[in-house]
């Protein structure tokens, strides 16, 4: 008993140490986009963890609806990390003794409201201050809610200035929420609070995620000579009904199965495609929690004023707002818009690559390998549209699927795009093109002229989070190996973004699923030498509507950020 306790104590000490290291690393990261030393520390410390791990951690979710038992067994430190990650994204909900409530007892955005808290010491708001609004959620009967778990988004913006920043929402678990914003620009600032889902709907989403991982299904065509058959595929299939073909990846152990065709052998699989979406996932009562215009992404009104006016900081009346310090750790947005241009917070200087010449100049002698879903394919498309001299080669690839390649022989530029491995909901991918990102990275020589861009999130929303953690673990390991053997390889990670949602989209692709994946993604790559393009905040802070494929001005800001990282401004003062 005592021995166990002291082990736990040690572990917690280490975990809290890791918190400090992550924090240090973040600060460091913001300053220079380089975190070699700290990430080495982090790795050392992971090793320390594993040597201590003799205790048996309880495992989560473990009816194995997602074939966790079929992949490679995670190492003890991987298990510990997974445990920690799953803990960090626990979502509060209605108290478990409460029976599923009727619609009238659930959160109603239109009867809820928010109030701006008055400034404490001074009368006026200044740049550098923190703004807080209290949100009180009410049900359809107008009664205040008594528990938390509602999914809210908060944004502070100014249409006049083309400014916007993501707010932080704190759930007080009693129906009241704080929305916190750093004040980063002088001038008008308006608060916008949106109820994305009532807490009762989040409960339903959570259940779908754990118990209906096959609500998006896949299929493969098998063919030999004149014979062809199509069967259903997924990460995990019940094996008691039909014999299976096992396509588990030999290198990573990532599981993938199809039902075996009746006449053909498993070797005759020729492609992979999205099969479809399972319907009738909800009871009639549950369906009431997912109504467009009623309780999906509806604005919460202000009970008084929804805007304030911000003065320049007292000590800097010119108000260029050079670098704003926020003293609360919670309030660390990754950037904000001003005049519709994204300004990452911290020392990084954004450059603007507004024409083809600037883009080509930056990418001269570079190979840019983009891997992932359609949200990074969008970057490939943006680049060849903005710099048409980088010419796409016709590889006869299927539309929207790829692989795609574009070349500029005068500037010696090569752009590649390839989709990530299953689960991928693209129309039809040849089996021969179905590759896991980590294996692709293992095949790269890398080096200072190589840029690797990763965007892996949208196709994982229907699976339990463990599936995503496992995938990212493999990718992270491959990234570290790549940077180890080829120092100077630039790695960019594009995070998840908000999207347009209706009743249907919510059940498969809700922003709530994405939010959870996004938190895991950011935590797993924190402190490593990668550029994180925070697509979540860049879509939340922007005035354009949420879309799976964000509008051009947002993509342009993302590309500017990447190119600023690839081609940083020369520091004249140092030479
Ligand atoms: C897994 O699920 C089955 C049936 O749904 C149940 O009988 C079994 O007890 C569960 N096992 C665990 C470990 O939860
Ligand atoms: C599928 O193959 C992998 C790797 O060879 C193996 O570990 C796994 O147990 C197999 N799955 C089944 C259901 O036999
Ligand atoms: C791009 O920016 C440069 C310098 O800021 C400017 O001279 C040029 O006209 C701009 N080009 C376009 C197409 O806006």
TrEMBL record:
| Any matching Pfam family | NXPE4_C
Question: Could you tell me the superkingdom of the organism this chain comes from?
Answer: Eukaryota
| Residues in NXPE C-terminal domain copies | 342-567
Provide one Gene Ontology biological process annotation: nervous system development
SUPFAM superfamilies of this UniProt entry?
E set domains
Q: What PANTHER family would the database entry show?
A: NXPE FAMILY MEMBER, NXPE FAMILY MEMBER 3
Query: Which family is annotated?
Result: Belongs to the NXPE family.
- What is the protein's given name? Neurexophilin and PC-esterase domain family, member 3
